[in-house]
Amino acid sequence: MIALVVSFSQVLDVTNNLGQEIKKNKYILVNYCDTKNKFCNILKPKYDELAVQMESSQFVIAFIDCSLNKDSCKNNEVNNYPTLNLYISGKLVEEYNFGPKEVVDIKKWLQAWDGKEL
After folding, report:
1. Most buried among 35, 61, 72, 116, using CB within 10 Å?
2. What is the pLDDT of residues 56-83, one digit of tens each?
3. Higher pLDDT pick, 9 / 16
4. Any transmembrane segments, and where (predicted)?
5. What is the pTM of this model?
6. What is the topology classification, in CATH, of domain 12-113?
7. Which sign, positive or negative, has the C-alpha torsion 16, 36, 27, 13?
8. What distance in Å separates the CA atoms of residue 37 and residue 15, rounded to the nearest whole number?
């Protein structure tokens, strides 16, 4: 018997439609990354797990590949990878830079924003 394992990421790829998704979703966390960057690759499995854990929340967990869309990353003043920016109602509210990028820490930070209006 052969087992087939199919994995679908819960992370929304916004490489080609970042602006639309920021406007469309009330709460969206965007991971600005370059897929060739070592630190982005270290974060990826953690970010995927965060998306799974946050699936039933109102937060959209998204990703943009800055190697494919340099203009969007530049326009959002992203200078380092990975950069995690939280947008609420279309506005940047905060960049996550509170130490280690572990699932539990990012999730706790997001939950502190839950229900906040701008």
Report:
1. 61
2. 899 999 999 999 999 999 999 999 999 9
3. 16
4. none
5. 0.89
6. Glutaredoxin (3.40.30)
7. positive
8. 16
CA–CA distance, 91 with 52 (Å, rounded to integer)? 24
pLDDT value at 1 more than 60: no
42 in Cβ contact with 35 (< 8 Å): no
SS3 sequence of the chain: CCCCCCCCCCCEECCCCHHHHHHHCCEEEEEEECCCCHHHHHHHHHHHHHHHHCCCCCEEEEEEECCCCHHHHHHCCCCCCCEEEEEECCEEEEEECCCCCCHHHHHHHHHHHCCCCC
* Amino acid, res. 84: L
Q: What percent of the chain has pLDDT over 90?
A: 82
Cβ-contact 107, 54 below 8 angstroms:
yes
